[in-house]
Amino acid sequence: MNYFCCHCGANLDLGDVFQHFYNEYNNDYTKAIQTARSYGWSEKNQLHFTRTIIVQKEQGKQFEKCPDCNNKDPFVYQKKNT
Q1: Are strands 48-50 and 53-55 parallel, antiparallel or unpaired?
Q2: Distance of CA 67 to CAs 12, 33, 36, 51, 56, Å?
Q3: Residues 23, 49: Cα–Cα separation, whole Å
Q4: Phi, psi (deg, nearest 5) at residue 46
Q5: Which pLDDT belongs to residue 77?
Q6: For 40-76, what is each residue's pLDDT tens digit?
Q7: DSSP alpha helix (H) spans, the chain
Q8: What is this structure's pTM?
Q9: Are the CB atoms for 11 and 80 separated by under 8 Å?
């Protein structure tokens, strides 16, 4: 996956979930893999943490926005009608 904002190009990648916990747990593989899996990480689905901000309003659907440019849906490029 591309972890750059499609609006401003900011790098939104905070790294691989497993690697984050492996480092946090001082190279304890068992603890890191268990925690990463609880986040949905697997060897086939290597998820990353991102810097995006999740917004949930009282009405409407939840969405993400870029913390740098504040644009909605930084990972989805939408063509503007001209």
Answers
A1: unpaired
A2: 9, 29, 24, 7, 15
A3: 14
A4: -80, 90
A5: 62
A6: 999 999 999 999 999 999 999 999 999 999 999 998 8
A7: 17-24, 29-38
A8: 0.76
A9: no
